[in-house]
Design a protein that fits this description.
The protein has 14 helices and 20 strands. The protein has 436 residues and is of the alpha/beta class. The chain folds into 2 domains: 140 residues, Aspartate Aminotransferase, domain 1 (Alpha-Beta Complex), CATH 3.90.1150; 271 residues, Aspartate Aminotransferase, domain 2. It has a 7-stranded mixed β-sheet, sandwiched between helices. A 4-stranded mixed β-sheet has the order 1-2-3-18. Helix 4 packs parallel to helix 11. The longest helix is centred in the C-terminal third of the chain and has 20 residues. The protein is globular, with a radius of gyration of 22 Å. The structure holds pyridoxal-5'-phosphate (PLP).
Length: 436
């Protein structure tokens, strides 16, 4: 907080399209889509209208024992994303809760179906699922949650696969270590395992760490064979981020739970959703005296305003040509990245899939890193901000996560500004030659 308080602060007063504006009328390209949420840009007229129309009817009513049109319509639309296979939707109010709900439902399901010995939980190395206690335990993102480790429940950690790709060009790809571990683990503990939690395709907070194509399907097939629930956290990757509505559907993966938030409302309002099957739902049915109820109720769960805007978001993404356009522009992003940063002396690695890209920075010369306290990545982002581009570093990695509605010209502005910022900052940083 000291660094934040001492630095010049940026107060955003309005947004239009991919741009944010401060009180002095300076404009900034939103290069991290307001923490990976924004889909169609800020101030989108159709989303604004959908919100206003709902505001005229109902701003909020509890979903604990009641229902309302907005959430009903949205749950039908969400079920439609899996062609009705995951027909049951549990609403919450953020990504962490969407994941916690899935894990709790899985654990309760096994208890309700007489298989309470299924207690183990598997999650992937480098994962990030939120900052609540339940999701901190699942996460394997180093540094964020170490302080709370003594209070976290036990999770088995599957190694993450290795994959580096940009504009469809693959530099490295290996899933064997990961899948071998899973085979061995399931052979020994499969019958005592409740669920496996995974961010499919790209692990955002791990610095856009990628998985080889087919990896999620391979994990899904192994989980199914052992009867282990597969929980896919699509909070970051869905709704256009990787050029699809749902990544799992696009890859033909049939998960038991799909968790959604962030882009669900196109980045307008907080909303979480956990999708699951009729079979899981039915385990929770019974007389009150049987105590099968899923006791998890959040005050603003399924808020009508958030639901109305989410519904319009899905309608917009389903229109002919919209996702195709996003996929085409994502390819442009990859090509521009390669052009600007391939062989750059301060870029150790770069990768891109959809609108999830990342640069790993380093001092010129191989095998070294900057001292972490130098905050090299943060400095580059501050320089970019001076030049009209908002980015947010993860250590010395710079995620590039613009709204998928970004235009080709805006993409070029993003890349050239980032390149100019890196070139302005990196040569001036003291090089402590830390050998790795
Ligand atoms: C994959 C993933 N899951 C869960 C979360 C947590 O979402 P929220 O901040 O809405 O709780 C995030 C946030 O970055 C995420 O990237």
């Amino acid at each position: 907080m000291r660094e934040y308080l001492d630095a010049e602060r940026l107060h955003v007063v309005r947004g239009k399209g991919c741009w944010l504006e401060d009180g002095e009328g300076r404009r900034y390209l939103d290069g991290n889509a307001s923490v990976w949420t924004n889909v169609h840009g800020h101030g989108d007229e159709e989303l604004d209208d959908a919100l206003r129309a709902q505001l005229g009817r109902l701003a909020h009513a509890t979903m604990l024992g009641l229902n309302h049109d907005a959430a009903s319509a949205l749950s039908a639309a969400l079920a439609g994303l899996t062609s009705g296979r995951l027909s049951r939707v549990f609403f919450s109010d953020c990504g962490a809760m969407a994941v916690e709900v899935a894990v709790k439902q899985s654990l309760q399901y096994w208890q309700l179906t007489g298989r309470g010995e299924r207690r183990r939980i598997v999650a992937m190395e480098h994962g990030y699922h939120g900052d609540s206690f339940g999701t901190m335990a699942l996460g394997g993102a180093q540094g964020f949650h170490d302080r709370f480790a003594p209070w976290l429940y036990r999770v088995e950690r599957m190694p993450a696969p290795v994959h580096e790709e940009c504009a469809g060009e693959v530099r490295e790809s290996d899933a064997a270590r990961s899948l071998d571990w899973l085979d061995r683990y399931l052979a020994e503990h499969g019958r005592h395992t409740a669920c496996l939690v995974l961010e499919p395709s790209v692990q955002g907070a791990a610095g856009m760490r990628q998985q080889p194509p087919g990896f999620v399907a391979a994990v899904a097939q192994r989980c199914r064979a052992e009867g282990v629930h597969l929980i896919l956290d699509e909070i970051f990757v869905a709704f256009g981020r990787l050029g699809e509505l749902l990544v799992s559907e696009a890859e033909g993966v049939k998960a038991d739970f799909v968790c959604l938030a962030k882009g669900l409302t196109a980045g307008y309002l907080p909303l979480g959703a956990t999708l699951t099957s009729e079979a899981v739902f039915e385990a929770f049915l019974g007389a009150t005296s049987e105590r099968r109820t899923f006791f998890h109720g959040q005050t603003f769960t399924g808020n009508p305003l958030a639901s109305a805007v989410a519904l319009k978001n899905i309608e917009k993404l389903r229109r002919p040509g919209v996702l195709e356009g996003m996929r085409r522009r994502a390819q442009t992003l990859g090509e521009e990245l390669r052009e600007a940063f391939g062989g750059h002396p301060n870029v150790a690695a770069y990768r891109q899939r959809g609108f999830a890209a990342c640069l790993d920075l380093r001092p010129a010369g191989a095998g070294r890193s900057w001292d972490a306290d130098l905050r090299a990545g943060h400095r580059v982002c501050l320089e970019a901000r001076r030049r009209g581009l908002i980015l947010r570093a993860l250590g010395d990695s710079i995620p590039i996560v613009p709204p998928p509605s970004i235009s080709d010209d805006e993409l070029r502005f993003l890349i050239t500004t980032l390149r100019a910022s890196l070139d302005a900052v990196a040569p001036g940083l003291p090089d402590f030659t830390h050998f790795q």
